[in-house]
Write a structure and sequence with these properties.
Elements (H helix, E strand, L loop, with lengths): L1 H20 L4 H12 L9 H5 L1 H17 L4 H14 L2 H18 L3 H11 L4 H13 L8 H27 L6 H32 L4 H22 L7 H15 L1 H28 L3 H29 L7 H10 L5 H6 L2 H4 L5 H30 L8 H10 L7 E4 L5 E13 L13 E15 L5 E9 L4 H5 E3 L4
Antiparallel strand pairs: 1-2, 1-5, 2-3, 3-4
Helix pairs in contact: 1-2, 1-13, 2-13, 4-8, 4-12, 4-13, 5-9, 6-7, 6-14, 7-9, 7-18, 8-9, 8-18, 9-10, 10-11, 10-12, 11-12, 11-13, 12-13, 14-15, 14-18, 15-18
């Protein structure tokens, strides 16, 4: 298994680099590497790696959903909450309806089997969509109207809704006495319980981190451990009560961000570094699950069913956005962002076949084909349309985030040590401001170029001036000033 892990790292990084050189999303290269290295093509991955593939993919998905939670601000959610809830259900219903309309004739399956297929195809892939939305959020794209935040939240709810519908349709096929209203009623229960089981440990972790000033890696590891336990809790409780654990994972980050932005920022930065490895695992192993021989059997008929389903889905997405402040271009971006399929299709595509559904092999073939067609096309579309459509103001607040990351600046409440004198200081005030670029300060230009700056005031814990009051120091840091790392270091207890 160690050799297979090495292959994932080396070949995955190679695929990522190659496709980025071609101005395409690197995740496409990782998916292709997984397809080629998987058991259905070159078969160079060990059986042991494929056995634990599901666990690795789940952990990688937890990393990206935690990062998503640490980016979810309440003000942004308030602006797009209604649209996100509508988008979590309406597009999927439209797509299932479209598949049921054409699949019986094109694939020679029953309407109930078409409903099962539609519920599999109706899930958008958080593995593809969430990382791209976080990248836009990191760079301030679409921040004005919180479009990436809306898509991020809606895509997570979408999966909960679709998987419940899939369970209902599969139960009806098996002749189970399925109460449809009770099944559908489980959707809001699952969502609410998922959020609650995330908020409670998130609140506990916040208090723990406030009391004990641990080093960032230890905080991040503890958050990861709690998030993994939540997904285990969902599996334990699924027979008795539905719990959307992936929403709980996001809720952990959300509550810590609400209570303490400095702590949330530090953990998020460590998760960002961890995501480099998790991304390789996720996309290469998702690619390895794809059986291109099965996908080939779906043929043109399967591709046509997928295309028609996407047309219906696109109409549903556009309808969901009626009444929002988005212009037609921004609505078009949302339509494109809801195209990629990968995670859910790889996870449940083979379930109907295992459950004895007569057309299970056809359903699996179309599900696999949907990954091969929509994951790369959707990812490319998101990148192209996002760069051209999403707003990006020159004075974006995210420029301050980039500056803070680059200079590794502390937050209010953190303690620092002077490398010159060894004295201990505490950050007591911080302001974000825009200043004239030094090179442009003497210019007569009416609109000089403005750059972000962060003002920090330090309080000496053991230093007093002549009046007996503790001494304070103030500094203003810009992108051209790297003096913080030269003169200070952030302190942690453990």
């Amino acid at each position: 298994m160690a050799f297979s892990l090495a292959l994932i790292i080396i070949l995955g990084l190679g695929g990522d680099y190659l496709f980025k050189r071609l101005k395409l999303p690197g995740l496409i290269g990782m998916l292709i590497v997984g397809v080629l290295a998987g058991p259905f093509v070159l078969n160079i991955m060990s059986p042991e790696m494929m056995k634990v593939s599901g666990d690795f993919r789940k952990i990688a998905l937890i990393v990206i959903l935690l990062r998503a939670g640490f980016e979810l601000r309440r003000d942004a959610l308030n602006r797009v909450g209604r649209a996100a809830v509508i988008m979590s259900a309406v597009p999927a219903v439209f797509e299932i309806g479209g598949v049921m309309l054409v699949a019986p004739k094109l694939l020679h399956i029953t309407y109930l089997e078409a409903a099962i297929l539609g519920s599999i195809l109706g899930a958008v892939s958080p593995a593809v969509v969430v990382p791209l939305m976080i990248d836009f959020m990191d760079r301030g794209r679409g921040a004005k109207k919180a479009i990436p935040t809306m898509i991020l939240g809606a895509s997570s709810l979408d999966d909960v809704f679709v998987i419940v519908l899939f369970t209902v349709f599969l139960g009806m096929y098996g002749g189970e006495q399925t109460n449809i209203l009770m099944r559908l009623g489980a959707i809001p229960i699952s969502i609410v319980l998922g959020i609650i089981v995330g908020l409670i440990p998130g609140y506990f972790l916040y208090h723990l981190f406030k009391k004990y000033d641990w080093r960032p890696p230890k905080r991040t590891m503890l958050v990861m451990g709690v998030a993994i336990v939540l997904t285990w809790l969902e599996a334990v409780c699924e027979e008795h009560v539905p719990v959307a654990s992936l929403l709980g994972v996001m809720a952990i980050g959300f509550i810590i961000l609400e209570k303490s932005e400095p702590i949330a920022h530090i953990i998020s930065q460590k998760l960002k570094k961890l995501w480099i490895f998790a991304e390789l695992l996720l996309f290469v192993l998702v690619g390895a699950q794809v059986n291109i021989h099965v996908a080939w059997k779906a043929g043109l008929s399967g591709a046509l069913v997928i295309f028609i389903g996407l047309v219906f889905r696109s109409v549903g997405t556009y309808v969901s956005l009626i009444g929002t402040p988005f212009n037609w271009k921004e609505k078009l971006f949302c339509v494109v962002a809801y195209i990629p399929k990968a995670t859910v299709q790889a996870a449940i595509g083979a379930v109907p076949l295992a459950a004895g559904v007569a057309s299970g092999e056809v359903i699996l073939a179309v599900a696999v084909l949907s990954i091969l067609l929509t994951a790369p096309i959707g990812a490319i579309g998101i990148m192209i349309f996002g760069e051209r459509i999403l707003d990006y103001g020159e004075l974006s607040v995210y420029r301050f985030k980039e500056l803070r990351d680059k200079l590794e600046l502390p937050h209010v409440g953190e303690r620092v040590r002077s490398k010159v004198s060894g004295s201990i200081w505490k950050v007591i005030e911080q302001k974000e401001m825009w200043v004239k670029e030094p090179s442009a300060s003497g210019s007569s230009d009416a609109n000089p170029r403005m750059i972000p700056a962060i003002y920090i005031r330090y309080w000496g814990e053991e230093i007093s001036n002549n009046s007996g009051k503790n001494k304070t120091l103030s500094y203003r840091y810009t992108q051209e000033d790297t003096s913080f790392k030269e003169n200070w270091e952030i302190l942690y207890d453990w």
